[in-house]
């Protein structure tokens, strides 16, 4: 198992229910590969560095996970097609 951090920026137009649904889907995808979600850090609504899809604000989340090396590709594939997700990044952390 490797340690990864998933950084998510969700649309400022997404309501709390939609945001929770996205986090739940990410958690299920990690658990599907036998991984675990260690922490979900909700940074709240923040101003974006530059305008994305005519939005100036977004909800920031940082998710720490332990999962096998093949899991991030699958998670990334699903994040790409989720509507409220405007940016994401998955980074392997040093042990």
Write structural notes for this entry.
This protein is α+β, with helices and mostly antiparallel strands. The model has no long low-confidence stretch (mean pLDDT 92). A hairpin with a 2-residue loop joins strand 2 (36-52) and strand 3 (55-67). It has two helices and four strands, in the order βαββαβ. The chain is 28% helix and 51% strand. It has helices at 16-32, 71-80, and strands at residues 2-11, 36-52, 55-67, 85-92. The protein has a four-stranded antiparallel beta sheet with strand order 2-3-1-4, with helices on one face.
Main sheet attributes: strand count, strand direction, barrel closure: 4 strands, antiparallel
Count of helical regions: 2
What is the alpha-carbon Rg in Å?
13 Å
Secondary-structure element sequence?
Answer: EHEEHE
Number of strands: 4
Spatial order of strands in the largest sheet: 2-3-1-4
Strand content: over 45%
N/C terminus separation: 11 Å
Class from helix and strand fractions: alpha+beta
Rounded mean pLDDT is 92
In short:
The protein contains two helices and four strands. The chain is of the alpha+beta class.
Protein traits:
95 residues, alpha+beta, four-stranded antiparallel β-sheet, 4 strands, globular
Write the layout of secondary structure elements.
Elements: E1 2-11, H1 16-32, E2 36-52, E3 55-67, H2 71-80, E4 85-92
């Amino acid at each position: 198992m490797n340690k990864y951090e998933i950084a998510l920026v969700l649309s400022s137009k997404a309501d709390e229910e939609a945001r929770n649904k996205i986090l739940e889907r990410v958690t299920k995808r990690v658990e599907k590969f036998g991984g675990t979600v260690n922490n979900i850090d909700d940074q709240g609504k923040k101003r974006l560095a530059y305008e994305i899809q005519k939005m100036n604000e977004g909800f920031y989340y940082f998710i720490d996970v332990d999962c096998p090396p093949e899991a991030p590709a699958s998670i990334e594939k699903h994040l790409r097609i989720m509507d409220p997700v405007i940016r994401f990044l998955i980074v392997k952390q040093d042990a």
